[in-house]
């Protein structure tokens, strides 16, 4: 009585954990059992495997077929175990060569006719297979995604079970897939469309250059959303390691477009009704949240105070640590979540606070109430806060086109390169301020301002980081008083708080 084993994977966060699918066929009452802490989606594999084999003209032997998913104490979920189960059963039935099967891991969902359907997590599975010195069998449409794991991956991308049978028999060999190229972002609006608003544009450039968080406050129709949407285009390409990491997260989330590599920083714009689980991950099916989908890219919170309080507060930990932890039956696991936050808000609910002709009767209380929806610790994590002054329609019509995104992106790239060379690959938003060369009068100004604005230790650190970026944009190795002075102009929130 032999046992046939085929490797597959379970996903904990973005890690592919090896799972051994074991099949034993023994004499006894005919049965088809799956054990090993499988949830309903895995248990249903039984019916899909049975139907797929029948579609190929193969009947299951009238014996006791036992499937074990080891390690048995780890919760398994998802339909992606179908393929490994089917292959192991075919091995145990002597339809497929067992020694060949031992050289592969497998992931894919079976259709009733034996077709292989796409599943999430193919890229981390391929990386896991390479690590274990195995090849990967996956659905044909995802072969390209698996191929990103490197030439060692030995990927077999099959349209259905029958073609796998033909491949192992040698009658029709499957050709190895090629990586499918880079994901092209759709149309991105250009910065040159934004007329005037020089202060806000400068703040956007500083935020892009140093990876800082930015809050734009202003009346409706003032161009806040317009500015925020132009941030991703100012950021440099992801490095090859970052691209693989981001693509892996998107693969686990099942969001990868035709298996293309994500080379540009992602831009996520969750709706302001987004739940906590949608924001930081979790829920009944643990999937990466918005903060992880925005990893190495931008998270844009439009109408920030309208977000549910819990969703907003849940951002505090990832903003500090660059990770998010989700509790599951199988234990706690973490997703990477190092993103740049850009938020927009109106000054109050009606949006016209501060405009003498239009503000409502509840001013200025309405503004305070509106801002109070964002907690102090959350505001403390904002590096740059600027007031967006709307440009009048006639000025918009008359003003010349501004600088195009490509020009600003060039300066941003050069500025990032300076920071990374100096700080071990870290941008200023992640660097320790003790490393910064600070002029004596610059430090004095920063300390005085911190006292006057009653900045927290975190606020002070963030002020120095923004000053560092302003110095870097000026190609100055020393942070001078003027750089700190400019950084202080982007603390609109603190200034508003202390002047009442
Ligand atoms: N400075 C500007 N240059 C060119 N167009 C502008 C400018 N400001 C506003 N607009 C025009 O106004 C429209 C509305 O701007 P946007 O949606 O960015 O405003 P908003 O500040 O996000 O408003 P809300 O608070 O209502 O969300 C833009 O799509 C653009 O057509
Ligand atoms: Mg808007």
Tell me about the biggest sheet?
5 strands, parallel
Helical fraction equals 25-40%
| Rg value | 27 Å
The end-to-end span amounts to 81 Å
Strand order of the largest sheet: 11-12-15-10-16
Mean pLDDT: 91
Bound molecules: adenosine-5'-triphosphate, magnesium ion
Shape: elongated
Proportion of beta-strand residues = 15-25%
Structural class: alpha/beta
Number of helices: 22
Tally of DSSP β-strands = 16
Low-confidence stretches: none
Q: What is the multimeric organization of the chains shown?
A: single chain
Characterize the structure shown.
There is one protein chain. This protein is α/β, with parallel strands linked by helices and 500 residues long. The protein contains 22 helices and 16 strands. The strands form 5 sheets. The chain has a 5-stranded parallel β-sheet. Strands 1-2-4-3 form a 4-stranded mixed β-sheet. The chain is elongated, with a radius of gyration of 27 Å. The N and C termini lie far apart (81 Å). The site of adenosine-5'-triphosphate (ATP) has 17 residues, from helix 9. Magnesium ion is lined by residues 224-225, 302, 344.
């Amino acid at each position: 009585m032999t046992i046939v084993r085929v490797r597959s994977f379970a996903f904990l966060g973005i890690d592919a954990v090896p799972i051994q699918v074991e099949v034993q066929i023994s004499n006894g009452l005919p049965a088809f059992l799956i054990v090993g802490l499988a949830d309903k989606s895995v248990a249903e594999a039984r019916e899909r495997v049975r139907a797929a084999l029948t579609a190929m003209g193969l009947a299951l032997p009238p014996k006791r077929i036992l499937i074990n998913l080891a390690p048995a104490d780890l919760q398994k979920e998802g339909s992606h175990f179908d393929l490994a189960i089917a292959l192991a059963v075919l091995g145990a039935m002597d339809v497929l060569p067992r020694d060949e099967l031992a050289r592969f891991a497998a992931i894919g969902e079976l259709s009733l006719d034996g077709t292989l359907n796409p599943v999430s997590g193919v890229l981390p599975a391929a990386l896991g297979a390479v690590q274990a010195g195995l090849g990967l069998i996956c659905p044909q449409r995802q072969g390209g995604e698996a191929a990103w794991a490197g030439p060692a991956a030995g990927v077999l991308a099959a349209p259905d079970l029958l073609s796998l049978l033909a491949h192992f028999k040698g009658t029709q060999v499957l050709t190895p897939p090629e990586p499918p190229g880079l994901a092209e972002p759709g149309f991105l609006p250009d910065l040159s469309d934004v007329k005037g608003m020089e202060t806000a544009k400068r703040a956007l450039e500083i935020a892009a250059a140093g990876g800082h968080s930015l809050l734009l406050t202003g009346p409706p129709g003032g161009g806040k959303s317009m500015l925020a949407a132009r941030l991703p285009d100012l950021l440099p390409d992801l490095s090859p390691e970052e691209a693989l990491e981001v693509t892996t997260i998107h693969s686990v989330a099942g969001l990868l477009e035709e298996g293309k590599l994500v080379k540009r920083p992602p831009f996520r714009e969750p709706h302001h009704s987004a739940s906590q689980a949608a924001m930081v991950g979790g829920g009944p099916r643990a999937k990466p949240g918005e903060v992880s989908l925005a990893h190495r890219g931008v998270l844009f919170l439009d109408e920030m105070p309208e977000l549910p309080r819990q969703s907003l507060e849940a951002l505090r930990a990832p903003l500090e640590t660059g990770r998010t932890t989700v509790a599951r039956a199988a234990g706690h696991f973490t997703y990477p979540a190092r993103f740049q936050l850009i938020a927009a808000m109106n000054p109050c609910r009606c949006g016209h606070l501060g405009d003498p002709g239009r503000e409502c009767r509840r001013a200025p209380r309405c503004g305070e109430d509106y801002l109070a929806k964002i907690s102090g610790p959350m505001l403390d994590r904002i590096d740059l806060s600027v007031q967006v002054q709307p440009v009048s329609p006639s000025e918009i019509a008359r003003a010349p086109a501004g600088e195009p995104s490509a020009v600003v992106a060039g300066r941003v790239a050069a500025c990032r390169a300076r920071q990374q060379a100096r700080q071990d690959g870290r941008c200023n938003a992640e660097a320790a301020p003790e490393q910064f060369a600070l002029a004596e009068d610059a430090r004095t100004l920063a300390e005085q301002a911190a006292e006057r604005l009653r900045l927290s230790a975190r606020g002070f650190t963030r002020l120095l980081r923004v000053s560092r970026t302003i110095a870097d944009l000026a190609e100055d190795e020393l942070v001078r008083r003027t750089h700190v002075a400019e950084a202080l102009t982007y603390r609109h929130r603190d200034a508003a708080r202390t002047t009442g």
